[in-house]
Amino acid sequence: MVDNTIVALAEKVNKMAQKLGAEHSEVVLIQGKQMSINLEESSIVKANSKSQTGIGLRVLINKAIGLSTSTQFDDSLLDAMVKDAVSLAKVSSPNPDNIGFASKVTSYPVVKGLYNKELASLSSDKLVEIAIQALNASLEKEATLNVSGSVGLFVGSKVIVNSNGVLAKTNGTVMTVFINNKIVKDDDIGVGYEYGFARSLKKIDPTEIGHKAADKALNNLGGQKIDSGEYPLLIDKRATRQTVGGILSRGVSAYNIIQGTAFFNDRLAEEIASPELTVIDNPLQTGGSSSRRFDDEGTATQKISIVDKGTLLSYLSDVYTSKKLDIPNTGSATKQGYGGIPKPSLTQIQIESGTASKDELFAELGTGIYLESPVFAMTGTNISQQVDVGFWVEKGEIKFPIKNTMLGTTVYDVLKNIKLVGKDLLIEGGMKSPMILLGSTKFSSGK
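^ that's the sequence the OP posted. Answer follows.
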């Protein structure tokens, strides 16, 4: 249960803003702590524990926004925070599309597994044990590895109240374990990392994470150059999630549509991808690391079909963008922490499985590239990037890691060029993703 004291505090600040003239007001309060253990040079070097507590206020006066935050809850500081937000709104430029904040919700969806008592009571000593377990697992594979990484734990509560009667509250726990390994052998360098994240301790296996990170570093040794050309491309499950998620998060955000930077403006009900691709955003997944009952404005979350057999079905929106574009509010408002203005974003991607087994995917790939690192569009729609973790495949068998190789394509070609989707899913932190096989893709070598 969320502490009633912080609920009362959020309601108090909301009323203070109203008394000072705010036409609309919204308070976001987070009370939490972050603990972390850091690894460097195969040793534990630092343990941190810091507060993640703070309060943010957003007010609207004459369709102009005022923002302020505080990390302390003394009456005098809260009073100053409210006055700052109101003063800023009064001198800011109005925006006719600022209609207010989220509407009152009768009830929020039930999402199980967001809070775990065992994690919430975990000591820093236990975090150290977990870090050592992951470290030793890597060194068991190869004693000469240089191991770095971190173990982190967040435990906290969030409350959102606004002048429309919204009262949303939740507790949450999230643990992350990240291990990065490096090995130097003669003139060769192998690097590999692995991570895990979950809302309960039983979903994290530090030994497995350490072993996988070591294996990846060792498998990265012996990199060779390849001939420039066009080759089919098989993308690993995790890289598929990051690739497709990165494209869609930027490509279907209603905020980006307003800014003119969305990849798929005016493309609703049109085919933007191969018919092999179906994607949903599911913040309601039990125990998902990004699962949530409400978004960062207090709107109820929902499962959203984004792409169905290649056809774009929905943009991601919040209160402001839904009004501006005259589209439904999908409850996708997202912001970092308690301050700032939220923007719609992908919450928890789930890509539906296909029909091809791993062996069938490699057989269909034949001679080409197997990629374990994601394909990212850094600027614009064109993609030109170094292959971080990729392997040369011949007759369906991995031969060697590739080096000094660039990949060139576009965000549109990545989605349209999907030929096969794997039937086996990586289920990780509430997200789901298969392997995907793309047709001919350009690669250039520094040969």
